[in-house]
Amino acid sequence: MDIFQYVKALSAFDGYVDYRVGKNYEIVIADMSKEFLEEICNELRKYGVSCGVYASRRDRAFRLRIYGKESVDRILNSSLAPEVLIAAAIDAEGNVKKYRNQPFRTRIVVKSDMARRIEDALTALSIRYVKITRKGGRYTEIVVSGKEENQKLYRVVKIRHPQKLQVVGHYLNL
Questions:
Q1: DSSP per residue over 87-127, as a string?
Q2: H-type helices in the chain, by residue range?
Q3: CATH (residue range 3-76)
Q4: CA within 20 to 30 Å of 105's CA: 20, 22, 31, 118, which one?
Q5: What's the pLDDT tens digit per position in 58-98?
């Protein structure tokens, strides 16, 4: 998986881009897992990207800060493959779980404007899903249900988040 595509997609879900010409060039991504963000930062450093992970007192989350005009431009100008978009969506906004007496499910809850992109990516990968609209149409829940369909999903989509990888590996034997 191309790390630049992945960071671009991840920033769309759990981050922001500060791109002020002549002033500031940075991408900031938040997560509760320091290990997850440090792994991404270490991989980016292999390509000469300046980055760092720090703790935020405000919400007890960690932040990955990527800075520098060239690095930010390289990330923002990368294209997005469907499997990379889905991987970032699951890592950032996803919930992977086996509920008691129910099939394994992958749930992604996003604002409705991003849901269309995820739906298109799942369709391109021939993954069946269910779409549920929440909170007056502002949020959309996309659910991939069943062991077989999730095995198909995770053979193509390579997630990185350590907690989610552990759950997927345990229930789907991948």
A1: HHHHHHHEEEEE-TTS-EEEEEEEEHHHHHHHHHHHHHTT-
A2: 3-14, 34-45, 69-76, 82-93, 112-124, 147-156, 162-172
A3: 3.10.28.10
A4: 31
A5: 888 999 999 999 999 999 999 999 999 999 999 999 999 88
Q: Is the pTM of this model over 0.85?
A: yes
CB 147, CB 172: distance < 8 Å: yes
Nearest CA to 145 out of 107, 89, 100, 105 is that of 105
| Residue ranges of domains in the chain | 3-76, 82-172
- Answer yes or no: is pLDDT of 103 > 90: no
Contact 96, 105 (CB under 8 A): yes
Mean pLDDT of the chain: 92
Domain 82-172 has what CATH class? Answer: alpha beta
Q: For CA atoms 133, 85, 144, 15, give the dihedral sign.
A: negative
Q: Which residues contact 128 (CB under 8 A, 6 or more apart)?
A: 144, 149
| Angstrom distance (rounded) from CA 146 to CA 31 | 27
Backbone angles phi, psi at 129, to 5 degrees: -150, 165
Q: Are 140 and 174 in contact (CB under 8 A)?
A: no
